[in-house]
Amino acid sequence: MKLIFVATLLLTSISARVIDNYEELLTLPAIVHEDLIIRSCPTSLQLENLAQVDGDLIIENCSQLAEINLQNLDYVQGDLKLQKLTSLVILDLPKLNHVRSFELRILPILNLMTLNPNMMVEKNLIISDTSLTNIDQGEFSNVKDLDILSINNNRFLEVFKFKSIKKIAQQLAIHANAKEIEIDLPVLHSSRNITIRDTSAVSLPSLEFVQTSLELIENQFSSLDFSKLRYVGGTLGIINNLNLERVDLNNLTEISGGLMISHNDKLRKVNFLSNLKQIGGAIHFDGRFDDISFQNLKLVKGSAFIKSTSALLDCQKWINPIRGKSVVRGGKIECVNGKSLHGNQAIPVGNPILTEKVNHENKNPGNKGFKNAKTATEYNQAKPLMNSLIESENSSNKKRLSLLTNFLLMSSALFL
């Protein structure tokens, strides 16, 4: 049996052809029946004979390469990866019809890209650290479904339009591009995970389902319209969007994780979740809110932390609701408004048992702030929810990450 298994592996695996000197490039056939890895390049790479690669095509670590022109390349069965090409300016792939994944990484001065608009990308589309200014429908008009769509660290990228993509099976991540970047995904229906940062406009008018987390962090837009969104399977976070004034999430009925709305300085009312019925984790609101209202909210399975610098916020309707029964069932309620803050009394309002301040500094460091080992284990299982947040060295981002960590400490054990 072992011999049969080894033989099967040998027959099904694809070998790799590694090009380490320029002379080998001149002998490439039209069809390469294996992975092709090119690590030695002239200033201009023009392989007029190459038409098909039956494995991956990888071009990497060619520091002098300024231009790639593969005029007749039609098909790559595996992944096309261009990485660590620090002098590349021009990429020309006019006839390429198919790749499994299309990945550009660390091409810091690439500013001109010509692609076949009908190119099919099956799995991942990653464009990272380039000087491209525009990625639109003309480049990827035939892409309908992806596993990963990641557009990051393209410091001059101002336009990103994908008018054909409908589903992202794993992750949509857009961050650290030009501050002026506008995101337009008009027919995107669902994604497993979404993280959007550092944008000036976001348009996802057809989005209905997010299977895990949806996080909008440190953007410049003033309005956010997710009016068709119905379900979020993890955490919904709207954090540090300093110009945000208007939000529409009125079709959203369930958040299976926590809800965090924090440090959006111009957002004065949380009244845009009129059909939300259930929150599976904790809620954390921190800002300048005059009013927080949920017309149809029936159940919050976690705890509640509400802090506003506005004296108009009524904490009593959270502590002593009119109907006599709080929707917050899973933990403590802490509410602080501007009156207590201005009086230097940051004291929670209401039942002292319910409003006892949540203390995350547990004496047992192995439990990371939880009361027992079981809950600590659940927290460790929840940690992957934070992995979609992009690490940053500046202090404001560290503060935001710390804030979200504390929030997940409150909610993770309840929504996993």
Distance between the termini: 41 Å
Helix/strand/pairing class, anyone? alpha/beta
Average pLDDT, to the nearest integer? 84
Query: Main beta sheet, described?
Result: 20 strands, parallel
**Unreliable parts:** 1-12, 344-398, 412-416
Structural Rg: 25 Å
How many DSSP helices?
Answer: 6
Strand content: 25-35%
**Shape summary:** elongated
Helix content: 10-25%
Number of strands: 37
Characterise this structure:
There is one protein chain. With 416 residues, the protein is α/β, with parallel strands linked by helices. Helix content is 13%, strand content 32%. The chain contains 6 helices and 37 strands. The strands form 7 sheets. The protein has a 20-stranded parallel sheet that branches. Strands 4-7-10-13 form a 4-stranded parallel sheet, with no helix packed on it. Strands 16-18-20-22 form a 4-stranded parallel sheet, with no helix packed on it. Helix 5 packs across helix 6 (395-415). The radius of gyration is 25 Å and the shape is elongated.
